[in-house]
Amino acid sequence: ILSGIMSVNGKKVLHMDRNSYYGGESASITPLEDLYKRFNLPGTPPESMGRGRDWNVDLIPKFLMANGQLVKMLLYTEVTRYLDFKVIEGSFVYKGGKIYKVPSTEAEALASSLMGLFEKRRFRKFLVYVANFDENDPRTFEGVDPKKTTMRDVYKKFDLGQDVIDFTGHALALYRTDDYLDQPCQETINRIKLYSESLARYGKSPYLYPLYGLGELPQGFARLSAIYGGTYMLNKPIEEIVIENGKVVGVKSEGEVARCKQLICDPSYVSDRVTKVGQVIRVICILSHPIKNTNDANSCQIIIPQNQVNRKSDIYVCMISSAHNVAAQGKYIAIASTTVETADPEKEIKPALDLLEPIEQKFVSISDLFAPTDLGTESQIFISRTYDATTHFETTCDDIKDIYKRMMGSEFDFEEMKRKKNDIYGEEEQQ
């Protein structure tokens, strides 16, 4: 995404990738045989899995929020020309061992079996309050100070019980832990607004997913970069990052040095400039059936709030299927992920896998999470953070904006991006 944005900004971009495919850590693997190889499974996929080429399996599952930052980046850069999306059919939340559809409209809140009658009325009032909340108009605050009042106090104000707090914080505001409860409420209210505005766009859920898998996203941005004169090299080994006087001056590959002023890379290229901040476990499961209690949805998300399973972090499940051209006919891919908290990660993720039984084949990966120790101010090396356990791209977009700001010294501005494109393409072509 950054190579696309930098190319639009008039920078001369060379994009090198040691892999033979786009997307690095977040690639989609095809054919299915390659996935078996990647996870060192013996033998080849059974006949029942259909044609290997029909599979595009994401290594890192994420959905796009319909009104979120990544969709804005796609629209402004017009990368949408190269992609087709489908709406994810439903979002579900786990409570007391069962899953329920996440109520996200007033009507759904009143019909939901997640809450009792009086709780529903209070939750509905809360949703109306959030919808009308405008941080620039104190008349909408109703005695709440967005920068001071904690979210815990806002829940109290509406007299919402623990279960409702759980699904609001984790399935609507999409927090991974409960730390947000004691922080000022403005951020949480904005997150719930993003969820309901995203939902309002398409109705079934606030999430979108690209046909043929997430591997289509990096390819779309690679095309964008190429249109603006960027060069992309796959299968290009990186031998050394050349540094003079503490500053990056080039990258050595196959005996040649490509000189540069700035370098963007992921943590795997610069192990001495990053620090490990945790681990994520992800389990890719192939199923021959939709997930139980989801109305046979061909795609969905399930969030298991940490409170419900005595954990500190939520567990996520993303499910997609042949409807998205990522699996053979009649097959479903469900990916469970969570932040590792103990020495036995597979046990931690069990509540999610129990919802998916019977599982035909599973692929387990445990990845280290890295964050840069070098912000790039001196070295001009800008390092991204490893993908976290969340099932949407909002945290990734925050990282993109953060790297942009460190590189350019100014905030990433969507409107500015639009103007730059108009300068090159002219207004007419945009229509």
UniProtKB/TrEMBL annotation:
Transmembrane segments: none annotated. One of its GO terms (biological process) is vesicle-mediated transport. Pfam families: GDI. Interacts with RHOH. Interacts with the GDP-bound inactive forms of RAB3A, RAB3B, RAB3C, RAB5A, RAB5B, RAB5C, RAB8A, RAB8B, RAB10, RAB12, RAB35, and RAB43; binds RAB3D to a lesser extent. Interacts with DZIP1; this interaction negatively regulates the interaction of GDI2 with GDP-bound RAB8A. GDP-dissociation inhibitor preventing the GDP to GTP exchange of most Rab proteins. By keeping these small GTPases in their inactive GDP-bound form regulates intracellular membrane trafficking. Negatively regulates protein transport to the cilium and ciliogenesis through the inhibition of RAB8A. It is found in: Cytoplasm; Golgi apparatus, trans-Golgi network; Membrane. One of its GO terms (cellular component) is Golgi apparatus. This is Rab GDP dissociation inhibitor. Its main location: cytoplasm. Belongs to the Rab GDI family. Keywords: Acetylation, Cytoplasm, Golgi apparatus, GTPase activation, Membrane, Phosphoprotein. It is a peripheral membrane protein. GO terms for molecular function: GTPase activator activity; Rab GDP-dissociation inhibitor activity. PANTHER family: RAB GDP DISSOCIATION INHIBITOR BETA, RAB GDP-DISSOCIATION INHIBITOR. InterPro entries: FAD/NAD-bd_sf, GDP_dissociation_inhibitor, RabGDI. It comes from Tauraco erythrolophus. It comes from the Eukaryota.
